[in-house]
Every structure is written in structure tokens, then in C-alpha cells.
Amino acid sequence: xxxxWRVIGLLLLAVGAFAAAWQLQDWRYGxxxxxxxxxxxxxxxxxxxxxxxxxxxxxxxRLALEQQLAASEQxxxxxxxxxQRDQDRLRDRLATADVRLSVLLDAGDVAAGCALPAPAGPGxxxxxxxxxxxxxxxxxxxxxxxxxxDRGLIALQACQAYVRxxxxxxxx
Length: 172
Prior knowledge:
Shape: rod-shaped
Distance between the termini: 100 Å
Strand content: under 5%
Order of helices and strands: HEEH
Radius of gyration: 45 Å
Number of strands: 2
Largest sheet: 2 strands, antiparallel
Low-confidence stretches: none
Helix content: over 70%
Oligomer: single chain
Strand order of the largest sheet: 1-2
């Protein structure tokens, strides 16, 4: 039985329609994929810009904090140097007998037989209080102790300033 040309024509028309529909569907999906890719690229670009802006802001904060800490370190180093210079000057003055350390004594509590200098007269500086001069070696030890205390206080202030600079919201 011969195949009628009409059936072959219909089959060719159906195949052509199917191919055209397939091509149309391919174009539509291609366009959707292109739009989706463009949208994804835009979103990724926006996220990248946001992240770069946030990173720059964090770098600026870090730089400002580093500068603040450097200035604070210089201030505390200067305070430490000044304290050291003052202590050295006082130590030198004690060693050359330019200055002497003395302590106030309670005149009523003095042990019998202990010779004390007579109280200062009405023109005296220390309002007639009895004073005893410290041995220079003991005075040097007292100066060393106060020097250590001064250094400790300066170091504590430096640590507190450092912590305040790192976490300012916690101390307000």
C-alpha cells in the first residue's frame, strides 16, 4: 500500500511544527536563562560592592584605632620617661646631699634616752613638729619604691587607655 502524499505532507508539517515549537521553546528558555544570569551577576556585583564598602569601613576603623593607640602609647611613654627623669633627679639630689628626706615624729611617743633635735621655733617651716632625718641609703630605697609605684600606675593607665580604645561602648 502506497503512502499517500498527504500523510507524508502532514507528517512533515507536524515535524516542522514540532521543530519550530522546539526552537521557540529553546529561545524562550535561553532568554530566561540570560535574564537569570544577568540578575545573578547584578546581585553578585551589588554584594561585592557592599562587602568592599564594609571592608573599607573596617579598615578605616582599624587605622583610626591604630593611630589612637600609637598616640596613647607615645603619651604614656612620655609620662614614663618624665617619671624616670624626675626620679633620677631626686636620686641624684639625695646622693649629693642637696636634699634630705625626713619624717615627722610624734614628740609624745619618743622613747626615753633618744636624742632628738629641738623643735623648730615660731619661725620654723614645719610648725614646731619634731622631725628625724632618714639615712641616705634608706631614702634611696624609698625613692626606688616610689619609682616602682609610679611606673606601675603609669602602666596601669596605659592598659586602661588601651582597653577603653578597643571597647569604647562598654565604658560609656
